[in-house]
Design goal:
single chain; 186 residues; mainly alpha; Rna Polymerase Sigma Factor, Chain: A; Arc Repressor Mutant, subunit A; 8 helices; 0% strand; globular
Amino acid sequence: MTSDDAVDAALVGRVRGGDVDAYDELVRRHMQRAHAVAFRLLGNREDAEDLVQDAFIQALDKIDSFDIERPFAPWFFRILTNRGLNMRQSRALRAVSEIPDDTASGGESPELSAEREELRTRLREAVATLPERQQLIVQLFEIDGWTSAEVAAALGISDGTVRWHVHEARRALRAALGPLRRQEQN
């Protein structure tokens, strides 16, 4: 166990003893990462906030079943991920309107902005063609900067499986985005 795991274990012990402040501290320690995972799962800030709140409530309800000899974070993120996948399947996500493309900007040229937006759109579309689990793994690993071990622990799969999914996703994305590369070279 790492020192962070030991701190979490001590906080869990205090929570089991009825210390509300200890649970507040446990939530603060994992809130930022929980929001990142929830947003990756649901793609919507409001739904992500609901998911995080729901996952922390469920974790508190099940805190007595948590094995204090194991790290808290993977246990919690497994709850969050499972609830998020269920939420995504069981209910329609709220519609969110995007900022219009013609919104004035003090930054880069419209041409460069349009080019980047096209690349983002193509990347999003290519990622959307990946299997659901692979999408989540790639986003956590490549975009959020998680290690393969952290992703594996959070999703309850082996480190090797995470690396395989990343490899396969990269291969699929290279194939899907290859035409863009050839266009730039011409």
